[in-house]
Each structure stands twice: as structure tokens, then as C-alpha cells.
Amino acid sequence: MATELYFDETAGPAADFLASYETRYGEKVEFPGYITSMYSQMYLIKAGMEAVGNDATKLKDWLSGVKGWKHALGELTFDENGDRVGEYAIKEVQADGSLKELSVVKPQ
User: The CATH number of the domain where 7 resides is what?
Assistant: First the structure.
């Protein structure tokens, strides 16, 4: 079993990012949610540091105020704890290594 951030990997900025990855490295992304998330996180931290500097407390406070930030995962919003607000996909790893989506959940 695995969990990934739920997002539409077939459309918009996520599809563009994943296609660019495949073109550049000559292979498909095995876990698109993880690599797309890492890619977006780097740019999110960059945006935060440009906004408030590299002080960890200021970055945490800035992150909890992010609403509708657009990047490869689509629009990202964070709650007062700095946690992403959104849905997560529960997936099962198949014998061939692929992932089969079992359900999508939205934490309360």
C-alpha cells in the first residue's frame, strides 16, 4: 500500500511536468505524486525564502498563510499548521511495480 497526494496527473501543469521529465530522462515517473510533490516543494520553499528570508519560524508562518499557490501539483493551500489541505490517493503496489488506485480520501 502507498499514499500519494491526489492530483490530476493527466492535465495542466502536472502533465506538463511529467512529460518534460519523461523527455529529459527517457523514462516514465514511477511514483508521479512523490516526484511532482518534491518538485513543487522546492519551488514553494524558494517562494517562501524570497518572501520572508531563511528564518524557519517566518517560513512556517508564511507557509500557513499560503492559499491557492499554483505549481505542478495544481493549486496548493495550507492550514494553520502548515499541512496541505486536499485529498490523498490510497494505492496498491501491483506485482509489476505499477500502482493501482484504490480510493481517494480527504482528511477531516
Answer: 3.40.50.2300
**Each residue's pLDDT tens digit in the chain (108 positions)?**
667 677 788 888 889 999 999 999 999 988 888 888 889 999 999 999 999 999 999 998 999 899 999 988 888 898 888 888 888 888 898 899 888 889 888 776
DSSP 4: E
pTM: 0.74
Q: What is the domain range of residue 53?
A: 2-105
Do 33 and 4 form a contact (C-beta atoms < 8 A)? yes
Please name which of 32, 25, 30, 31 lies closest in space to residue 8, comparing C-alpha atoms: 32
